[in-house]
Structure formats: C-alpha cells, structure tokens
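Ops channel
N.P.: pipeline sanity check, posting one input/output pair.
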C-alpha cells in the first residue's frame, strides 16, 4: 500500500493537519504539514484552523494540542506512545511534594501529563526554559519538574537554586561521557551538540546545548563539517536534509547499534498514521475541568515566548 498517497488524500478530504516531532521516523517527518520541537508544535497547535489534528509524536504532546483545542478532534496514531519523563512524575506524588513548599511557584517542563500541567504555574520547553526562568526575580523560589537534568542545567547556567523533581528521560539520560569521548577521539574535528535532557557531565562536554530546533539551526549555521549529536536518532534526518554535505553521528545508547531511538516516539508508523486518519481514532480526550486548569500555564508560556520573540 502506498501510505504516502493515501495519507495525503485523506488529509485533504478531512482538512486535517499532521504535526510531527523531529524524533519521528523519516517517512512521517516527510509527510507532515509541520515538523518541530515541542515549542513550535505547541504554537502550531494553538494557531491551526484545521478541523482535525493528527499528532505524530507522544501522548503529552497530543494532550497539549487537545488542551489548546478543546473543541477539535485530536488523534494520536498509538495511544501507548508515552514518555518516561512524563511517567516519572505522578500527579498525586507531585501534589504532596509541592504542598510542602507553599512559597514556591511551579515551573513544569512540557514533557509531563495534563495532571501535572494543571498543578503548574508556567509550562516551559527546552526552547524557552532558560529565558522563562530568568523572567522571574532572582529570589523567586521555584520548583522545577519533572526533568532533573534540564533543571540542573538551568540552575548551573543561571545561578539559581530551583528545587528539582527527580525525573529523567530514559533516552537522553543513558548517554555516557565514555561513548562521547570515544567518538571525539575518532573524530577530533567534530562539534558536540546535546539536548538538555542529557546528564550534567555530558552537557559539560558539549559545544552547544539546546532544543531539537536549536541543535538543528546550530548544525546548519556552524562552519564545522562534522557533528556528534547527543539526542534521539530521528533528529539526524532533518540535519542531514538541511546540510547534505555535513556528517552527523548520533551518540550510541550502547554497543549494539549506532543509534539512540526513543521507543515511544518510534511506536508511530505510516500504517498507524493512515489508519488513524481513516478511522479518526485513537482520540485524545480529557475532562473539561482539567483542560481549563492546564490551559492557563500553557498559555502563559506562549504569551511569554511571544513577548520575548522566541516564537
Ligand atoms: P524538544 O524537541 O522540545 O527539544 O524536546 C525533545 C523531547 O524531549 C521530545 O521528547
Ligand atoms: Fe520522553 Fe525522552 Fe522519548 Fe522525549 S525522548 S518522548 S523525553 S522518553
């Protein structure tokens, strides 16, 4: 079956938009109406006039799109496409934790469930987290959830002392300095770009730390011809497309392959995308009260980002 043609036909018939994250398989990235990082995807979801939103990403991303579009149908090709970072922060446990610090505001990384978003004051992404933290006075007490690596990175960069929830991304946190140093020895002329979900020692080695979009732009604009990428394998597709003459190597997760795939992102396939557009299922549904509460910190993030010229 020619899924590309079939998906394209259905998308037009149904006035659907396909939003895809950079970690999706190349075929899905190539057919998407928009590919981006979490910030770009949230912005696109907030602005779309499509009747149907198909999210080729993971559950928290599709939930964010639903929160921003409560009256639209939002589909996720595989409802099992979760996220270890989101799963590391159960709302009941987080509620108990944050209650102990009533003088702190809660900043949550967008990689969290709607249950955490509704308990948050502002949402951040890897594309705006540093700037949003810096928009608060230096003495503002802050709880940062759920990624302790991103939170630790911001603390180091800004000299803050945010309280960190102990969550990690199983894909980025497992990358080691040993694997990177090995690649650096073999490729001394390569620059290292890293996603801030990586562990602190990995980030210290990096020439550049940033969101998927920021890493992509850096590899396009930097004069180096070789890049070691401490992130998920999917991002290499756009890097290679945008800079065909440059060489990209992902930091391997172990000795078994030269790859580092997110098992959740890779649950989406062209077949599942086609079936989901055809049957208009699986659909993301959330109680309206959750939507109303979770929308406020997401909109705050979008407003701050607009004011700062980040989107
Ligand atoms: P960004 O694309 O927003 O940098 O986030 C990466 C990520 O963790 C998606 O899972
Ligand atoms: Fe979650 Fe990590 Fe996968 Fe992103 S790469 S969806 S943070 S598990």
């Amino acid at each position: 079956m020619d899924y590309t043609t079939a998906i394209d036909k259905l998308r037009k018939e149904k006035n659907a938009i396909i939003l895809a994250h950079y970690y999706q398989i190349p075929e899905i990235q190539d057919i998407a109406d928009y590919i981006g990082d979490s910030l770009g995807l949230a912005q696109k979801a907030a602005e779309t006039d499509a009747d149907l939103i198909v999210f080729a990403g993971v559950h928290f991303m599709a939930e964010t799109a639903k929160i921003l579009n409560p009256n639209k149908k939002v589909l996720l090709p595989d409802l099992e496409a979760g996220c270890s970072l989101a799963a590391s922060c159960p709302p009941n446990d987080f509620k108990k934790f944050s209650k102990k610090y009533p003088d702190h505001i809660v900043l949550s990384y967008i990689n969290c469930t709607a249950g955490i978003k509704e308990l948050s004051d502002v949402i951040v992404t890897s594309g705006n987290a540093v700037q949003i933290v810096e928009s608060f006075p230096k003495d503002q007490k802050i709880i940062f959830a759920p990624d302790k690596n991103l939170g630790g990175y911001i603390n180091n960069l800004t000299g803050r002392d945010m309280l960190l929830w102990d969550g990690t991304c199983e894909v980025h946190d497992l990358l080691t300095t040993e694997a990177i140093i090995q690649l650096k020895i073999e490729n001394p002329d390569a620059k290292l770009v890293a996603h801030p979900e990586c562990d602190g020692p990995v980030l210290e080695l990096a020439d550049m730390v940033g969101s998927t979009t920021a890493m992509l732009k850096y590899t396009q604009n930097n004069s180096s011809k070789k890049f070691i990428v401490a992130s998920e394998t999917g991002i290499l597709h756009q890097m290679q497309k945008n800079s065909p003459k440059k060489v990209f190597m992902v930091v391997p997760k172990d000795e078994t392959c030269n790859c580092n795939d997110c098992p959740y992102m890779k649950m989406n396939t062209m077949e599942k995308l086609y079936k989901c557009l055809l049957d208009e299922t699986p659909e993301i549904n959330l109680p309206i009260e959750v939507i109303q509460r979770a929308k406020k910190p997401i909109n705050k993030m979008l407003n701050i980002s607009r004011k700062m010229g980040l989107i």
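N.P.: looks fine end to end. Residues 58, 83-85, 111, 169-172, 197, 232, 262, 264-265 surround iron/sulfur cluster (ligand 2) (CB under 6 Å).
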